[in-house]
C-alpha cells in the first residue's frame, strides 16, 4: 500500500467496508501500477483525504457510518476529486442520483476487473486534467488549490484578481464588456464591485 508520493504513483482511495472486495481491489490496483489507500468508513475516508494526497476515490454507497452519496458531495465540494461509485445499487434512481451529485462514473458490482481499470484510467485522463488544471501559454491555473503560476513561479493574487482571471480564462477569444464583468464579480463583503475598482484590478 502506498504511504507517500515519492514514487509519484497515482494514489486511489478505496472506500469500501467489504474486506474481501478491498483485498481484491488493492491487488488489482497495485498490479496495474497504482498506489492504494483504504477506508472502511466514511469518517476514515475524510481523515485520509485531509491528510494525504489522493488522485481518485473509488466509493461504495453503503457504508457503516453514513451514505456514500454524502461523502461524494463532501469530496466534490472540498477537493473536487474524481469519484467513481462502485456499488451493488443498480436501480436507475441510484445511478441518476450518483451522477447528479457529481460522480465521474458509476460501476455496478460485480465488476469486471479490466473494465474497471479502463474506466479509472479514462476518468484520470479526461476528468481530472480538464477539471483541475487550466493552461494558457505560460500561465497555469490549479483550480483545486486556487493557485496561479507563470513559468513555474507562483503568482500571489487577491480573491478578486483570481476571480477575474477565471472569467477571462473561461471566455477566451470573447470581448467582455465592463457591465458583463461587473455583473459577475462580487467583492468579499457581498457587494457589487464598482467600475473604478474594476479598472484598477484589470490594469494590474
From TrEMBL:
Recall the GO molecular function terms of this protein's record: phosphorelay response regulator activity; transcription cis-regulatory region binding
Residues in the DNA-binding region are 131-204
- The reply on keyword Transcription regulation is yes
Q: Which residues form the OmpR/PhoB-type domain?
A: 131-204
- Using the record's annotation, list all stretches that form the Response regulatory domain: 11-124
Protein's job = May play the central regulatory role in sporulation. It may be an element of the effector pathway responsible for the activation of sporulation genes in response to nutritional stress. Spo0A may act in concert with spo0H (a sigma factor) to control the expression of some genes that are critical to the sporulation process.
Task: Kindly provide the name given to this protein in its UniProt entry.
Answer: Stage 0 sporulation protein A homolog
Q: Which organism is it from?
A: Candidatus Anaerobutyricum stercoripullorum
Amino acid at each position: 500500500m502506498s504511504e507517500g508520493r515519492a514514487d509519484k504513483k497515482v494514489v486511489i482511495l478505496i472506500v469500501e467496508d467489504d474486506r474481501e472486495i478491498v483485498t481484491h481491489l488493492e491487488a488489482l490496483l497495485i498490479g496495474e501500477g497504482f498506489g492504494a489507500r483504504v477506508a472502511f468508513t466514511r469518517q476514515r475516508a475524510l481523515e485520509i483525504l485531509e491528510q494525504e494526497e489522493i488522485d481518485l476515490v473509488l466509493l461504495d454507497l453503503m457504508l457503516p457510518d453514513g451514505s456514500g452519496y454524502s461523502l461524494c458531495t463532501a469530496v466534490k465540494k472540498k477537493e473536487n476529486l474524481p469519484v467513481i461509485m462502485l456499488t451493488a445499487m443498480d436501480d436507475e434512481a441510484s445511478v441518476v442520483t450518483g451522477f447528479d451529485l457529481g460522480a465521474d462514473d458509476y460501476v455496478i458490482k460485480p465488476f469486471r476487473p479490466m473494465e474497471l481499470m479502463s474506466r479509472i484510467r479514462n476518468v484520470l485522463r479526461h476528468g481530472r486534467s480538464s477539471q483541475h488544471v487550466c493552461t494558457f501559454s505560460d500561465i497555469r491555473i490549479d483550480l483545486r488549490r486556487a493557485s496561479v503560476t507563470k513559468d513555474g513561479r507562483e503568482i500571489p493574487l487577491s480573491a478578486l484578481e483570481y476571480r477575474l482571471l477565471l472569467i477571462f480564462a473561461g471566455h477566451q477569444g470573447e470581448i467582455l464588456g465592463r457591465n458583463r464583468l461587473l455583473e459577475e464579480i462580487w467583492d468579499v463583503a457581498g457587494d457589487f464591485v464598482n467600475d473604478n475598482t474594476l479598472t484598477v484590478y484589470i490594469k494590474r
